[in-house]
Amino acid sequence: MINKKILIFFPDGVGLRNFAFTQFKEIGEQRGNKIIYWNNTAFPLQEELGYEEVRIKTQNIHPLTPFYCRIRKHIELNVATKKFNDPVYKTYKFPFNYKGIKNILMTVFVRLLIGLNSSERGILRIRKRINALERSTQKYNYCKAQLQEIKPDLVFCTTQRATQSIAALLAAQDLGIPTLTFVYSWDNVPKAMQLVETDYYCVWSDLMKKEMLQYYPFIKENQLIVTGTPQFEPHYDESLLEAREDFFKQHNLDAAKKYICFSGDDETTSPLDQYYLEDLANAVRTLNAKGENLGIIYRKCPVDTTSRYEAVINANKDIIAVIDPLWKAMGKQWNEVFPAKADLKLLHNVCAHSELVTNVCSSTVFDFVAHDKPCIYYNYEQPQLKKGIRDIGQNYKYVHFRSMPSAEAAVFCTDKNQLANQIAAILNGSLSNVSEGKKWYSIVAGETPTQASEKIWNAIGSIVNSK
Length: 467
Hints:
Keywords: Transferase. The strands form 3 sheets. The protein has a 7-stranded parallel sheet. The chain has a 6-stranded parallel sheet with strand order 10-9-8-13-14-15.
């Protein structure tokens, strides 16, 4: 593939780690492509990284689009519930808002359209309505004019789940420009998070391909390309690894201690997450009293801005070291919190220099398995659980956890009184999920985790050359 102009589209910041900070750009350029970033975010790609970019300055989507997208999501989940005879899809829905007359009226409108369209034909009607709304916007015309000036050979959208991407991709398709999108996360397909319709889709694995065909019958098999995800590629980049002594010195860690990583969750997924950190601290104290010398590295969820962990951290300063992810807020929404490129190196070394990770249902199980490190999943209720607070046990019932090859793909802690014993067993080598975890990792992320960027460029090359 020679001298093709590829437009890498960031509708929001979630794709930065995969497609701006990895070797993705370099691989594409080595193949003779001219790469331009089509930037709809506040992250200054040219200023920060020196990448050629075209900024999208018109941000307003149609005011009804978010409501129709919510209607679409509910309908897709209703259809899946009926199609697969499975109540789990109901748990993916967010509750309706009945506070205030405006919210009541909007909820009535939304629920009426859901009721009238809860079928696969109804899904197509709502999708057409969304597309019609977005084609009527100034954003559509603005993006169309940019595309007419740039004249790319292909537009590659870095996530399938952003409303900000719809008008831009419609403009490309209406101009006859091939479009390709990447399914961003391992849990997105069953959760009805497919907002865009493109000519082709890059998926992580054969499992995700199968899911796309199950949930979206309007997508054909020849539109789906299994590539893996660049998300895990930095874990295999040995140039990112720092010596233990240097890493510990840089982060004021005790060289005599072995560290357990506690990977924090967002408040929606794990609203009582701070108490699991407290349980881990208590377990570490129990083990240290028996002769171990352990500490905890607390790495918060990058988009968690709460202060809920502070009391636990302050009460356990002697054993908890805080190493914050290198992310920066450039807006008030969760998808306006952007990573720094240096965070890839930081996460690589947190994994490499920790003995294991503990968390609630996070995909960090795969980050650590890539370093041959075990993972403990917390799976018990906290006594602080009360009506109105979400039980974390619901997470493990989600469809994407059914991909585990066995219950040993992670170490599940179902009783906090067993946590210290499980940690001790991992440390002495008698308990591990790494072997089964690697099988799970292969099922979810594909069998060639180091080749995802190459395979995405293979897909891009095949599409533009066939054109």
